[in-house]
Amino acid sequence: MELLPQSREALDEYVATVDDLEHELRVIEGWALRTVPECVAMSVTFHDDDLTFTLVESPGPGDGSTGPTTAGGADGTREPSGGENALDEGWWAEMARSRAWAGIASTVSLPVVDGGRVVLSIDLYASTAHAFHGRLDALAEALGASEAGAVTNADLGFDSRRRAEEAPGRLRDQRMIDVAVGLIAARERVTVEVARAMLGRAAQRASIGDVQAALVVHGLHQG
C-alpha cells in the first residue's frame, strides 16, 4: 500500500521523527496484511496529536479515480419499504454499504490502549464482506490492540481518509500556535505553559480560535 499524498506531506515536512513513524506504520501494515490479505487500505490515528495517516492499495480507494458508491436518492440514502424497519440493524448495514467507498466491503477499527486510555486507533479496510470474520483475535494480538474494543463496518465511507487529508493543515496550525506561544513566553518572560494559557484566554476573550489568535501574535511581532 502507498501513503496518501497528504500523509506523505505530513511525514516528510512536519513530523520530526519521520523515519521512526513511517517504520511504525509499515510494521502495522505488514502485520495487518499477513493476517487479513484482503486489506486494501489502512488508517492509523495518533490520539495525542489528533493526526491520522492513511495508506491505500494502488490503484484503489483514495487514488483519485474512485469514490463513494451510491444507490437510491441523490445522497445515496434509501427509505425503508415493504416490511423493512428503520431501526433494523440489517437495513442500516445495507444503507452503509450502498454509500461505501468503491472497493471497500468491510472495515474494522481496533483501539490500542496504554495506561487505561486509547493512544492509537487502527482502521483496516478490506475488499470482501467477510474478511475479518474469525480473524479479529489474531489481528488484535498481532497489532497489540484490544479485541474487546473492536468495531466492525463503522467506516465503510472511508471517513478516516478525510481526516488524513486534513493532517498537513492541522500540523501547520499547530506550528503557528507553538511559535506564537514561544513569542509570548519570550516577551512576557513566562513559561511555555503559562504562555499557552495566555494565548487561550486571549482567544476566548476575542471569541476567536487559537489559530486566529496566533496569527494576531505573529502580526504584532512582525509589526
Could you provide a short overview of the structure?
With 223 residues, this protein is α+β, with helices and mostly antiparallel strands. The chain is built from eight helices and six strands, in the order βααββαββαβαααα.
Structure commentary:
There is one protein chain. Helix 1 (5-14) packs parallel to helix 6, helix 6 (167-188) packs across helix 7 and helix 6 packs across helix 8 (210-222). This protein has 8 helices and 6 strands, in the order E-H-H-E-E-H-E-E-H-E-H-H-H-H. The longest helix has 22 residues, at 167-188. It has a 6-stranded antiparallel β-sheet with strand order 1-3-2-5-4-6, sandwiched between helices. It is an alpha+beta fold and 223 residues long. The protein has 2 domains: 2-66 and 101-161, no CATH class; 169-222, Winged helix-like DNA-binding domain superfamily/Winged helix DNA-binding domain (Arc Repressor Mutant, subunit A, Orthogonal Bundle), CATH 1.10.10.10.
